[in-house]
Design goal:
By secondary structure, the chain is mostly helical. The protein is flat and about 85 Å long. The protein has 26 helices and no strands.
Amino acid sequence: MEDLRHMTEVECMCVLQSKPLGVDEDAPGELIVSVGEQVTRDNLQALLKRALVVSTELGKMFQRLEKRRWQRVHSTALRVSAHVRSLIQEYSTARSAPADMQKYEKSLLEKCMELNVITERCLHTEDEYFLKSMKEAIHEILTDVSDSFSHMIDMALANEIQILIRQIEDSDNVFAISTAISNLLSLTQDGPQLCSIIAKEGAVVALLKICRQDCFSSLYAHALRTLASICCVEDGISQLEEVDGILCLAEILTDGACAEATRAEAAAVMAQITSPHHSSTQHLASFLESMQDIVTALISLCASASCGEVFLLASAALANITFFDSMACEILLQLNAVPILLQACRDRQRVDTPYSKDQVVTILANLSVLEQCTADVLEEKGVEQLLVLLNEKPSSSSPSEGAACERVQQKAAVTLARLSRDPLVAQSAVQLRAVPRLIELCRSPAERNNSDSVLVACLAALRRLASECPDSIGVSDHQQLIKPRLVDSFLLCSNMEESFV
């Protein structure tokens, strides 16, 4: 009876999910949600939800097995078996499973049955030696069940994704294609593993095919946004490069007839594939061929951006590209990037968050390595703007916003240190009272949000200014922040508490 209780709970839930809600007694009984009539998106969501339930139960079973709580182990095994059986039955009703998947389903059900039998045997004995050997056997079977279940779910997801991709490739209906793209985009939000499956099934090729057809121009932005999500994994970037996707992105970015939203989404894809977090970006040979056009289009988009989101996407792509190849910095200087970026910083409509300022100051920090950057900065009162960025503070308690403000302060200090190689910049910084602010950031952990990276950058900037303008720093500050080795000054200012326990 105890076992039956757990079995019927699961089965009752399955039945209840198929019942209509609030159906008129005189009306014909139609199911509001019928598994056999669900669209692909519903199949996928149901599959993911049920998979999460099974995965959670398997995790609990591993924990209970370690604690040797045999009654709970057995009841959990019964629940897992019931959930797996229901999942397979529901999916088979909604969709014809591939032959390979059917083999996995049969094998998985057999292993679940074996798990039920062996866990039940543990309830009827107190022999410690027997229970110890059974624990090892159950652990092995449970591992097999987990692996088989994961593989079966991946195959089912791949099957559903293939159906979505065929809808994109074979349909001429804009609404049908848009719906399929929306479903793909929704799936990409469920993690990198699913993004890898989507990429391997050919979604990148299908989306780029849409972006190369004029008749689907209304879908470009939607397709590109989905493409950016898929390219968060290496498989997506590899697929993009194989089918000359970068050339397609460059064409969209440089096409003045394309809507701003479309070009912004193309910039988002560019930012994603050039992210320093990806190891494969160094292999994007086709990117180097189109760099001049891409960089030109992106800085133009920054200059004409109608809102903060568009500017953020374009500037993020530029920031990544300046890390990607030093030639991009030279191109940007030729395109008057410094005035464009500094003017944008003063425009609340375009640069309205610490995240946007982070991208701007990243580009400026990378450009400041080149000597010709100095004249543009001085002409546009860039030193004054850098001091504004040194005062950046979060407007909320959001950890991500706090981290963005730290990056802004750090990179502003780095940029100031690099530019201060020029005596004119150093003198301008001193006149604008950069030294007191840098000292405050060094001495007050709260001002720099306890960030060690900001502290190091500010110490470096102070030392550069002290070398160019020795009289700008007081005696006590000089003794503590300038004269010692950098590491000693860092330890003096750092709020780290050492423990020798």
